[in-house]
Design brief:
The protein has seven helices and three strands; from the N terminus they run αβαβαααβαα. It is mainly alpha-helical and 196 residues long. The chain has a three-stranded parallel sheet, with no helix packed on it. The longest helix is centred in the middle third of the chain and has 29 residues. The radius of gyration is 18 Å and the shape is globular. The two termini are 18 Å apart.
């Protein structure tokens, strides 16, 4: 596995059995990297709904909520610091770390990288160390806010993307435009180390 950056990338596992998932995580995740937010489950769990601006995916999510609302108490939540600074903090950390990780390969194999990825890595190499350190400090504030919300809710439900998944033919040649639409929601949770 080659990460885009060291501290932001997480590995997700899809499996039919929770025990298999636990076993795989024990193998791939060292003990010093485990930070788990655990909430005491109530008899009727509280589901925090974290929505973005009015868009097609949020509307579809709201329709789906009706199907499970009898099982949960629904609470609309906001994470204002994460909403305001999360994407910028993630971009600075991600691009700086990616540029560091790929620097040797980038100079030797520049032609092997997709143009948009190459451009992002070059952009990352230009990030000031002071901006990177400030982003790490902000990341701590974002994590604190994220952990605090679990005093109010047991789960967070949020749209994964801003748009319905496009066809590959629509993305080719428009990678930069689609990248933001497809990752900006999940990268907010990625920056605090949560599954996204």
């Amino acid at each position: 596995i080659i990460p885009f950056s060291w501290s932001l990338d997480t590995i997700g596992i899809i499996a039919k059995d929770i025990e298999l998932i636990r076993h795989v995580f024990k193998v791939i995740l060292p003990n010093d990297k485990k930070l788990v937010v655990v909430s005491k489950l109530r008899s009727r769990p509280k589901l925090g709904l974290f929505l973005f601006e009015d868009n097609e995916v949020s509307k579809e999510l709201l329709k789906s909520i009706d199907k499970v609302s009898s099982y949960f108490d629904l609470i609309e939540i906001d994470l204002p610091l994460l909403r305001r600074y999360g994407n910028r903090v993630r971009r600075i950390i991600g691009l700086a770390e990616a540029a560091s990780y790929h620097k040797d390969w980038l100079s030797l194999y520049a032609d092997k990288y997709f143009k948009d990825t190459y451009n992002l890595l070059v952009e990352g190499s230009k990030i000031l160390v002071t901006d990177y350190i400030d982003a790490l400090r902000y990341r701590r504030l974002l994590l604190d806010e994220y952990v605090r919300i679990f005093k109010k809710v047991d789960f967070i439900l949020s749209p994964t993307t801003k748009i319905v998944a496009p066809k590959i033919s629509e993305v080719i040649g428009n990678e930069l435009r689609f990248r933001h639409l497809l990752i900006s929601n999940t990268e907010l949770f990625n920056v605090v180390g949560a599954p996204s």
